[in-house]
């Protein structure tokens, strides 16, 4: 276990260290920037990017807004 980004999405296994599946919005803060991303499973993530890198600080459940809806 030498990786510093060993966290993956508990819902679909998407690595947090990989490129975000979809960037929803990006906000610049005093400490760096906050990036809202949506995972491949539909889970909304909040990532904090600062001088130390980007990390996931909050993660929602994949349910809610289905990425690929099947009811339209
Ligand atoms: Zn996921």
Helix coverage percent:
under 10%
The averaged pLDDT comes out at 82
Bound molecules: zinc ion
Global shape:
globular
Beta content comes to: 35-45%
Structure classification: mainly beta
Distance between the termini: 44 Å
Number of helices: 0
Quantity of strands, as a count: 4
- Uncertain residue ranges: none
Largest sheet: 4 strands, antiparallel
Biggest β-sheet: strands ordered side by side in the sheet: 1-2-3-4
Task: Write the topology of this structure.
Blueprint: E1 22-28, E2 33-38, E3 44-50, E4 53-59
Antiparallel strand pairs: 1-2, 2-3, 3-4
Q: What would you say this structure looks like, in words?
A:
The chain has a 4-stranded antiparallel sheet with strand order 1-2-3-4, with no helix packed on it. It is built from no helices and 4 strands. It has a domain of 38 residues. It is mainly β. The mean pLDDT is 82. Helix content is 0%, strand content 38%. Strand 2 and strand 3 form a beta hairpin. The protein binds zinc ion. The site of zinc ion has 8 residues, from loops.
